[in-house]
Amino acid sequence: MAARRGDRGQVAIEFVGMVPLILLLVAAVWECVLIGYAFSLAGNAADEGARAGAVTGDAACQAAAKEHIGDAWNLKVKCGKSGDIYQVKVTLGIPVLFPGLDFGEIDGTGGAALEKEAK
Asked: How far is CA 63 from CA 18, 46, 58, 75, in A?
């Protein structure tokens, strides 16, 4: 009786062919998550810096913006007054698969009304 080959081993071959595509899809989804997280971090840091800067000034703005962001995000902060508004611009590096390896920048802006002392 002749040996029948059939489709024995077909699942293993299909799995080996699909693994690179699955890994590529996982990497793409992870990159999207990191970009969204970077936007969230930049916006939150700008808001916190603006609140602190409106009350106390530039030094407090810088400290508040940097408080919750690690060094791997390549943080840059610009604080300053614009009329009656204290504005902050935070720039973070866009990570490639993990923070520290960047391919661009994300900006977050925030503002708060200047608080004046009563006389």
From this structure: 48, 11, 9, 12
Residue pair 66/75 in contact (Cβ under 8 Å)? The answer is: yes
Among 88, 2, 90, smallest CA distance to 38 is for: 90
Q: Cα angle vertex 107, ends 56, 23, to 5°?
A: 135
**How confident is the model over 80-115, as pLDDT tens digits?**
998 899 999 999 988 888 777 778 899 999 999 987
Q: CB 89: neighbour CB atoms within 10 A?
A: 19
Nearest to 78 by CA among 107, 114, 55, 98: 107
Give pTM, 2 decimals. 0.78
Check: CB of residue 55 under 8 Å from CB of residue 117. no
Q: Amino acid identity, residue 78? A: K
* Contact of 109 with 77, CB cutoff 8 Å: no
With a pLDDT cut of 90, the percent of the chain lying above it is 57
Q: What share of the chain is helix, strand, coil (3-state, %, to 5)?
A: 50, 30, 20
